[in-house]
Design a protein that fits this description.
single chain; about 450 residues; Rossmann fold; UDP-N-acetylmuramoyl-L-alanine:D-glutamate ligase; Protein-Tyrosine Phosphatase, Chain A; six-stranded mixed sheet; about 25% strand; globular
Length: about 450
């Protein structure tokens, strides 16, 4: 697939995973272009790289010469460009298939899990970036260290990639080292139940190269053969790699790392949230297994800045804090809110949340209602449907009714400022995996001028 490619066209080029591949092929010298539905910071970034992006589903805008098409399942089957490309008999591949091809002959570290994939991938990428090995990174979010979701050092550097369980995409990968942060139920529209999801994770583990390594969160039930399994934890000293003596000083985590019962000294990690500290320990475990020096490891962990839309502080003043986060599963929402409570005790939290997918809201309606009740004030947006059709009775209004909280209401993109300003505000958090982040610049501008 890679050897003869001189022209690549992307359908859905503005997606976070698609854009990283587009950047990769551009750097490899291919002519890269693509279509997306709407302009965004990502499409602007690609255009700044010299990549042609069109926003009309018009076959006249297709290049004459295309060797390969990479598409996202979000592209509708009645897309004019998609059907024209099929008629031309140009090879079409999903993003996950191409990522598997790009990485198959290289040392690969693949990060999987229901929660924490993107942050863990970004952490590991920064650790390797600060080592002699360097890194080729495909991240499911924009690293604040690189200001990009992609980084390429050399073909001799390891590939660090996010291994997405959605649509079983990670089964195209055959890593040397794999990480699993969690195997909690999600994407039940694909898997039907949690057991099918776990079985697919184990199928992924079986694809780790012989004599490779699975790095897993201590307590997860994993079964592997012909590879080593290394556990990590921030809670149990029974894990192979664990953090001890955890404390917060000047807003940063300070902790000791033990590897096979040996104390490797004190580490500093400045990204907030205990769940993110756990992700850092996963990254430390990978680096230790792979033989990176403790000095490089401490530098990579200590210099990590974070990922856009992961506990991202947008604005902080004496009287107000605005945070943006991608949390879209009940466990993620709960961990995020708990982290804010611990870091800012006694302060009032206003949560603006946009549920993502009808199926996820249906499967976790009660769980969402419970965790959203842990905020002080809740503002709900309508469900972001993405690829889905509505499900009868599954909507934000019914979710709001289930939340045991007095201070709760609905809002939308047009009236969010008025709704917010109807009460005093202290900490405002914006959460969701849809397009809720569109309000963040609007809120920032408003708060800076009042």
């Amino acid at each position: 697939m890679e050897n003869k490619i001189t022209s690549v066209y992307f359908l859905g080029i503005g997606g976070i995973g698609m854009s990283a591949l587009a950047h990769y092929y551009k750097e490899q010298g291919a002519k890269v272009s693509g279509y997306d539905l709407t302009e965004s910071p990502i499409t602007q970034y690609l255009q700044n790289l010299g990549i042609d992006v069109v926003f009309e589903d018009d076959i006249s805008l297709l290049p004459e010469k295309i060797d390969m098409v990479i598409y996202t399942p979000a592209i509708p089957q009645d897309s004019k460009q998609l059907n024209e490309l099929k008629n031309r008999n140009i090879p079409l591949f999903k993003r996950s298939q191409v990522l598997g091809e790009v990485t198959k002959n290289h040392k690969t570290i693949a990060i999987s899990g229901t929660h924490g994939k993107t942050t863990t991938t970004a952490i590991i990428s920064n650790v390797y970036h600060n080592s002699k090995q360097g890194v080729n990174a495909f991240i499911g979010g924009v690293s604040l260290n690189f200001d990009s979701n992609y980084l390429f050092t050399s073909k001799n550097s390891p590939f660090v990639v996010e291994a997405d369980e959605y649509d079983k995409s990670f089964l195209t990968l055959f890593p040397d080292i794999a990480v699993v942060t969690s195997m909690e139920a999600d994407h039940l529209d694909i898997y039907n139940d949690a057991n099918n999801l776990k079985d697919t994770f184990h199928e992924f583990f079986s694809q780790i190269k012989p004599n490779g390594t699975l790095v897993y969160k201590y307590g997860l039930e994993v079964k592997v053969s012909n590879i080593q399994a290394v556990s990590y934890s921030i809670e149990s000293s029974e894990a192979d790699v664990f953090a001890s003596n955890i404390r917060i000083e000047d807003g940063s985590f300070h902790f000791d790392i033990y590897y096979k019962k040996e104390n490797l000294g004190s580490f500093i990690f400045s990204f907030p949230g205990r769940h993110n500290l756990e992700n850092a320990v996963a990254g430390i475990a990978v680096a230790l297994v792979d033989g990176l020096s403790v000095a490089d490891l401490k530098k990579g962990i200590g210099s990590f800045k974070g990922v856009k839309r992961r506990f991202e502080k947008i604005l902080e003043t004496e009287n107000l804090l605005l945070i943006d986060d991608y949390a879209h599963h009940p466990t993620e929402v709960e961990a995020f809110l708990e982290s804010i409570r611990k870091q800012y005790p006694g302060r009032k939290i206003t949560t603006i949340f946009q549920p993502h997918l009808y199926s996820r809201t249906q499967h976790f309606m009660d769980e969402f209602a419970e965790v959203l009740g842990k905020t002080d004030r809740l503002i709900l947006f309508d469900i972001y449907p993405a690829r889905e059709l509505p499900i009868d009775g599954i909507n934000s209004t019914n979710l709001l009714k289930k939340v045991k909280l007095e201070n709760k209401e609905m809002a939308n993109f047009k009236n969010i400022i008025d709704v917010l300003e109807s009460q005093s505000i202290d900490i405002v958090v914006v959460m969701g995996a849809g397009n809720i982040d569109r309000i963040v610049p609007q809120l920032k501008n408003h708060f800076e001028t009042v």
